[in-house]
Write a structure and sequence with these properties.
mainly beta
Length: 293
């Protein structure tokens, strides 16, 4: 992994060449970081192809810690998702591989306690949504009981299978689906028998904003939720779009982007019916014939 030191105008590389705790390259996936979450202290929690990594930017490489099935109770399969809950616990989601189990794992940094859940849950995607009063829900995919999704309720310390009926959540739309206000962008069922879904925004109280179906359908490669009226989406065909109450959808050409992020330093101002809407600059990474643009 690398970080850019802005004050020094240089990159700092942190690799398994200098820090063997990151993992040996012969172990498939161990150096592959799939997702990163930052806790309230600025620490970074990373899901990897074999367990997880911890890193404190303040302390530097000396803080590096690896969690695997050999030294913890984390599911040792390919962990593709990590989220921080309001109570400070760290949630990982993995799918099973030849070298490790899939499922959901939870770590409490305050007590150093691990807890694992039924490996029918997980598949690498996970989302935490605040539920008020310090409580929260954890959304993930499910493989039991005929349901596509499951939800953990911190208030009751229990999991619930989400029935496949019209209007219910159907699938996670990707990573970064919960905005700072606690709304989550999910795929919801339109017609379960025809396996039809659409992207919509779900409030913490369980109600939907009921936005119209986007033109890209469910073809979502990357998503970042900023508010209930602004979401950045890159579809699998290479187009980028967002939604606001003032402007509707806006699109720009692309070439199969792998990731998308938002720059808050250089906003674009566009006038709408009621007031000016500040839209972010979209930064898209895509493959080209000579590398990445």
């Amino acid at each position: 992994m690398s970080r850019f030191l802005t004050q020094e105008n240089r990159w700092e590389n942190i690799s398994n060449v200098d820090h063997q705790i990151i993992g040996h390259p012969e172990l498939t996936g161990i150096t592959r970081i799939s997702d990163i979450a930052q806790d309230e202290f600025g620490n970074l929690w990373m899901s990897t192809g074999r367990g997880a990594l911890f890193y404190s930017p303040q302390l530097g490489p000396v803080s590096l810690s690896r969690f695997g099935e050999d030294n913890s109770f984390i599911r040792g399969g390919w962990n593709r998702g990590v989220e921080i809950a309001p109570d400070g616990t760290v949630w990982f989601s993995a799918y099973g591989t030849a070298w490790g189990q899939g499922g959901i794992s939870r770590f409490d940094p305050a007590t150093q306690h691990w807890r694992t859940f039924d490996n029918s849950f997980g598949d690498g995607q996970i989302a935490v949504q605040p539920a008020g009063g310090g409580e929260y829900h954890v959304w993930c995919n499910s493989f039991q009981g005929g349901a596509n999704m499951a939800r953990y309720d911190s208030a009751t310390d229990s999991w619930h299978e989400i029935s496949n009926v019209a209007g219910n959540p159907a699938q996670l739309a990707g990573k970064n689906v919960t905005d700072p206000e606690g709304n989550s962008w999910l795929l919801k069922w339109v017609d379960p028998q025809l396996f039809e879904m659409q992207l919509d925004c779900r409030r913490a109280d369980g109600t939907w904003f009921n936005y119209p179906a986007p033109p890209f359908g469910t073809n979502i490669a990357a998503l970042r939720a900023k508010s209930p009226t602004l979401v950045l989406v890159v579809d699998g065909s290479g187009d980028a779009g967002g939604s606001t109450e003032q402007t509707g959808f806006f699109w720009g050409p692309g070439k199969r982007p792998f990731t998308a992020t938002i720059s808050t330093r250089t906003p674009l101002e566009t006038s709408g019916p009621a007031e000016s809407a500040v839209l972010p600059v979209v930064i898209i990474s895509r493959a080209t014939g000579s590398g990445t643009a």
